[in-house]
Amino acid sequence: MIKKILLGAFCIAQFSLAYANEKRAVINSSKVSDEVQPFQKIPKTVIIKTKKFKIRIDKQPNGKYLYQSWAANAKITSKPSMIISDGELIPDGTGGNYYFSFINKGFTYQVWRNYLTDSASKAPYTLSVSDENGNEVVNQDGFVVKQ
Questions:
Q1: Residue 113 and residue 124: Cα distance in Å, rounded?
Q2: Rounded Cα–Cα distance for residues 115 and 133 (Å)
Q3: 87 touches 65 (CB < 8 A)
Q4: How do the pLDDT tens digits run along the chain, 147 residues long?
Q5: Residue 72 CB partners (closer than 8 Å, separation 6+)
Q6: 3-state secondary structure at position 138
């Protein structure tokens, strides 16, 4: 009789443990730390080129993003003309679009990732720069150089 009770308790413990592990796997897969959607991974580093700029965005160990830019014809191995740290990744809707936002001297730099657009010919990235009053001073499409 004692053997049957111990066997039953052991089976219940095993099933509970298996269920807990399954539940933890479901919870972990629903987190959105490095991904906007489970099927769209956000790269740790992306280099894009617009008409006037080369832009490199890197994820930092603290979870923030680093923006570096050069003139379009400059080599990326040279010193950047601008560096902005502590950028943030901001999801935009549920379709997978997102943008990186950086603030420097009153200007807001946003690099948009365009997954869902109203045009099939839309560039995969867009650089938008606004002044302190919210007026857009730069809006340029960007294409991936390296991801």
A1: 6
A2: 28
A3: yes
A4: 777 776 666 657 565 555 555 544 444 444 444 444 444 678 899 999 999 999 999 999 999 999 999 999 999 999 999 999 999 999 887 777 899 999 999 999 999 987 766 666 678 899 999 999 999 999 999 998 875
A5: 49, 50, 51, 52, 53, 54
A6: strand
- Report residue 65 as tokens: 């993003």
Rounded Cα–Cα distance for residues 1 and 111 (Å): 69
3-class DSSP assignment, residue 10: helix
Chain-centroid distance of CA 64 in Å reads 10
pTM score, whole prediction: 0.69
**Rounded Cα–Cα distance for residues 43 and 64 (Å):** 13
* Residue that the structure tokens 């946003």 belong to: 110
DSSP string, 34-75: SEEETTEEPPSEEEEE-SSEEEEEEE-TTS-EEEEEEETTS-
| Other beta carbons within 10 Å of 48 | 25
**Residue 21 backbone phi and psi in degrees, to 5:** -65, -40
Which residues pair with residue 84 across a beta bridge?
Answer: 67
Residue 20 makes CB contacts below 8 A (sequence gap 6+) with none
